[in-house]
Amino acid sequence: MKNTLTFLKSFATDKDVASITPSSKYCVRKLCEHIDFTTTKTIVEYGGGTGVFTKHFLKQMSPDARLFVFETNDNFYKKLSEIQDERITVFHESVEEIMNLLPEQVVGAVDHVVSGIPFSFFDWEMKIDILGKTQQILRNEGSFLAYQTSGHLKKPLTEVFDNYTTDFCWKNIPPYFIYESVKD
């Protein structure tokens, strides 16, 4: 309930928050079907929110894995900063700054980028810029996974990655499309 209240407060005061509730456990499970945590060493999360995905990742990740989370909302950043785990780094910055913030040795070696940021709020240039930087930080065969409320990512993903698949999670408010693009 506390997470939902934080979301409602943020939804009312932050124009960049697209949902009134945290993602459901069903959505987390559905998206995580695309991640093999036994081989994953680095995950980057765009828009950590109240930490629903973040905490699940940390439970599943190996002791030597790393998680980098980007969150611009003050309330969400504060919650994420309270997570006590040496494997996580939380940035109170936009993902547009990712190339300046990720450690050099991580760029080109990320296994998965998971995104809950509302790409539907961005113009075409910003979508392409963020997806282009995402492709740069991924390793070969690394994946970009996004949960979104509509089909608006199909053209940008085709432009940048030249591939995508979609799944759908009905058990979430709102229901989400789950996109996956793999770096060739």
UniProtKB/TrEMBL annotation:
GO terms for biological process: methylation. GO terms for molecular function: methyltransferase activity; RNA binding. Gene3D superfamilies: Vaccinia Virus protein VP39. Keywords: Methyltransferase, RNA-binding, S-adenosyl-L-methionine, Transferase. It comes from the Bacteria. InterPro entries: KsgA/Erm, SAM-dependent_MTases_sf. This is Phospholipid N-methyltransferase. It comes from Gracilimonas sediminicola. The lineage of its organism: Bacteria, Pseudomonadati, Balneolota, Balneolia, Balneolales.
